[in-house]
Amino acid sequence: MHRILEATKPETAYFTEREGHRGGIFVVNLDSPSDVARLAEPWFLSFNATVEFRIAMTAEDLGRADLGALGKKWT
Predict the structure, then answer these.
(1) What pLDDT is attached to residue 59?
(2) Long-range CB contacts (within 8 A, 24+) of 47-51
(3) Cβ-count burial of 35 within 10 angstroms (0-12 exposed, 13-18 middle, 19+ buried)?
(4) For tag attachment on the chain, is the N or C end more exposed, with fewer CB atoms within 10 Å?
């Protein structure tokens, strides 16, 4: 586990229970969608783990999404 964490370099890592199983929550920055494979494969191959990703963004990221223009386009 230590080797995977050194390789993936999460900003923070929490270990917890998830639905009655050992679990972890790791905050990572993705530069590209292809980073998903780089982050998930070590857990799949080493622990046969289930991996889920939740996308989050900063207020600045949300501002770049131009919600006003999207609202006009889709309403």
Answers:
(1) 93
(2) none
(3) middle
(4) C
Identify each DSSP E strand in 10-64 by its residue range.
12-18, 21-27
Q: Give the separation between CA 65 and CA 31, rounded to whole angstroms.
A: 16
- Tell whether pTM > 0.90: no
Q: What is the pLDDT of residues 13-66, one digit of tens each?
A: 999 999 999 999 999 999 999 999 999 999 999 999 999 999 899 999 999 999
- Cα–Cα distance measured from residue 20 to residue 16, given in angstroms and rounded to the nearest whole number: 10
Nearest Cα neighbor of 30 from 62, 63, 65, 57 is 57
Closest CA to 42 of 14, 2, 69, 70: 2
